[in-house]
Design goal:
Layout lengths: L2 E2 L11 E9 L6 E3 L7 E3 L1 H7 L6 E2 L2 E8 L3 H6 L2 E9 H4 L9 H14 L3 E4 L11 E12 H6 L4 E5 L1 H16 L11 H10 L16
Antiparallel strand pairs: 1-10, 2-6, 2-10, 3-4, 3-5, 6-7, 7-9, 8-9
Length: 215
């Protein structure tokens, strides 16, 4: 499909896919502090920093994920850290994909919606890269890894976007971070909004979209 498979010794580049990498998840409401000589204690982050004057260790859950390098090539060679975006199942990243069941519906999502929704980048299945289903890069979820650590894990690189896909990926990242964020349903009338919410149930109406309000 759209993937290349560089040698293990090849430099890390934007569009390189790694799996697995650790995604750390921490709750600021329940920070688990590892205390020396005693059991861990749980506290809120604001209470912890109010009393701590030095660095400290915490216990955090980690889960393995697939991720793609978002850092540009020049920075991936020299910078201290490399930023990656998490890769998940396409239906998990794009809610409307849960309704797709035919080649026609998938075609519409992967072309029309790819132009509309700038929060993800589509990755087709390919067993060689480890994808048994349609996947997506979620630009909202980033992972930071020290460059020297990632270079030591180049054997975890399962593939790389080819030149056509990488150019598109680069533009998608740029579009995402320079986009003007807005709620696209703000101009719909109440009936149109109800249709919209069938695909996006979390859309909250604006005051002028509530029944009985002047249009």
């Amino acid at each position: 499909m759209i993937y290349d498979f560089p040698d293990t010794g090849a430099p890390i580049r934007q569009g390189d896919i790694f799996s697995p990498l650790p995604r750390v998840e921490i709750s600021l409401e329940e920070v688990v502090i590892a205390a020396e000589g005693g059991p861990p204690r749980v506290a809120k982050w604001q209470d912890v920093v109010a009393t701590m004057t030095d660095s400290f260790n915490v216990v955090v859950p980690v889960r393995p994920v697939s991720a793609i390098v978002a850092t540009q090539d020049c920075d991936a060679v020299h910078s201290r850290d490399i930023t990656l975006c998490e890769i998940r199942g396409f239906r998990d990243v794009e809610g409307i994909a849960k309704l797709a069941s035919s080649p026609k519906s998938w075609k519409n999502i992967l072309t029309q919606h790819a132009r509309i929704n700038q929060k993800w980048y589509y990755l087709p299945p390919d067993s060689r890269v480890g994808f048994s289903e349609k996947m997506a890069v979620d630009f909202l979820v980033t992972i930071r890894v020290a460059r020297v650590d990632l270079e030591k894990l180049r054997s975890f690189r399962t593939g790389r976007l080819n030149s056509v896909a990488e150019a598109h990926f680069r533009e998608r990242i740029a579009e995402f971070f320079r986009r003007y964020p807005y709620d696209e349903w703000y101009a719909l009338d109440p009936d149109e909004l109800q249709e919209y919410k069938k695909n996006y149930p979390d859309a909250k109406p604006f005051p002028w979209q509530t029944e009985g309000q002047p249009q």
